[in-house]
């Protein structure tokens, strides 16, 4: 089976990308309540990991990922919900005997949320795209098309209110991963025609929608043995590849995305600096072109996985040092990126996604270093 996150040419677990509904953000306001400490439900006997988070309102949030249902059994979907006071475990359907994992979540309202990933009908069966919808009472699986007989899965989801929605990932065609984008029209999911930047592997990791006719997606494609950044744009007339920069001649990958408007889009990921050393990659769309934005120097195995925005001058990105097993967060203040000090337990944990509310609330999720404890950290800005 094909794993859903690619890190510098290697296949590992996937991340989720967090986006504000419709890609819109407002002026930051002071939080009405503090959000400190670490709180998460970890029901599995072994791995408990959260890959995605979204917060439709100040007192509501959703986080998704996976658990090991037994020490030797399959992986199952994990969903948790913040009610304004605490996080609680939600029941998720798992009518298959194989693995099922949730990588992305998008919540236009507290009573309407989507989580996407992949599932296997039986152990070892081909991956199939998975979409679940929260109706305010329960999560239910929604039918999604699978365009190939090979592995197919979702990495991220975003939309404009309750519809249209866009889910992105990959579809294995003749042994090569190709871009996959599906659209929810309010009634059903349908596969959209999506371009590829090369004849080799093409992989979409994240999506964000400003409007129904201004949707961005990012990932990577393989050319001459190297990963290169992949940026796709939908303007209502179909998806097109948009030229994007790379740092150096080695691997470059984009994992996270937030679109604030027509002239303000951010993407984050990683680039290979040489000798198996990696650094965080930050790119910005100014309405005309994508450009690399430099940030603080970090450890030599650092990757950004998620990004979200409180406002145009208050943007947050989360990631981790894969070698050291530590997480980090950076903040854009409108002029430059700065490292944010984290509590010790958060700093020594892997951070896979981040969500920022216009009220100033910021959520980061992932897993603690033992991988047995899911991690949720909240703060006010």
> What distance lies between the first and last C-alpha atoms, to the nearest angstrom?
41 Å
Q: So, CATH architecture?
A: 7 Propeller
> If you average the pLDDT, what whole number results?
90
Radius of gyration: 18 Å
CATH topology: Methylamine Dehydrogenase, Chain H
**CATH class group:** Mainly Beta
Count of β-strands: 29
Helix/strand-derived category reads: mainly beta
Largest sheet report: 4 strands, antiparallel
Count of discrete domains: 1
What are the salient characteristics of this protein?
381 residues, mainly beta, Methylamine Dehydrogenase, Chain H, four-stranded antiparallel sheet, 1 helix, 1% helix, 56% strand, globular
């Amino acid at each position: 089976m094909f794993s859903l996150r690619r890190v510098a040419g290697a296949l590992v677990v996937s991340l989720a990308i967090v986006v504000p509904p419709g890609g819109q953000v407002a002026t930051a306001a002071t939080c009405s309540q503090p959000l400190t400490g670490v709180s998460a439900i970890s029901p599995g006997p072994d791995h408990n990991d959260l890959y995605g988070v979204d917060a439709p309102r100040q007192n509501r949030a959703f986080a998704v990922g996976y658990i090991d249902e037994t020490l030797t059994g399959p992986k199952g979907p994990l969903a948790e919900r913040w009610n304004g006071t605490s996080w609680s475990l939600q029941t998720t359907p798992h009518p298959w005997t194989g693995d099922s994992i949730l990588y992305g979540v998008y919540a236009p309202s507290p009573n309407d949320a989507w989580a996407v990933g992949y599932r296997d009908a039986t152990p070892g069966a081909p991956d199939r795209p998975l979409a679940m919808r929260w109706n305010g009472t329960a999560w239910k699986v929604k039918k999604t098309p699978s365009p190939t007989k090979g592995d197919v899965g979702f990495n991220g989801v975003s939309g404009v209110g309750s519809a249209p929605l866009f889910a992105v990932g990959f579809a294995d065609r003749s042994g090569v991963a190709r871009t996959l984008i599906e659209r929810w029209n309010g009634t059903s999911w349908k596969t959209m025609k999506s371009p590829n930047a090369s004849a080799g592997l093409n992989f979409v990791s994240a999506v964000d929608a400003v409007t129904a006719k201004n949707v961005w997606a990012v990932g990577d494609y393989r050319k001459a043995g190297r990963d290169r950044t992949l940026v796709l744009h939908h303007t209502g007339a179909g998806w097109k590849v948009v030229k994007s920069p790379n740092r150096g001649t080695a691997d470059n990958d984009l994992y996270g995305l937030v679109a604030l408007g027509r002239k303000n889009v951010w993407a984050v990921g990683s680039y290979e600096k040489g000798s198996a050393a990696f650094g965080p990659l930050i790119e910005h769309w100014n309405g005309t072109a994508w450009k690399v934005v430099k940030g603080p120097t970090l450890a030599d195995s650092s990757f950004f996985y998620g990004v979200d925005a409180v406002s145009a001058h208050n943007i947050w990105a989360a990631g981790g040092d894969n070698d050291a097993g530590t997480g980090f967060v950076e903040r854009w203040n409108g002029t430059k990126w700065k490292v944010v000090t984290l509590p010790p337990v958060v700093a020594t944990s892997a951070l896979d996604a981040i969500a920022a509310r216009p009220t100033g609330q910021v959520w980061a999720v992932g897993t603690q270093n033992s991988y047995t404890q899911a991690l949720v950290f909240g703060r006010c800005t």
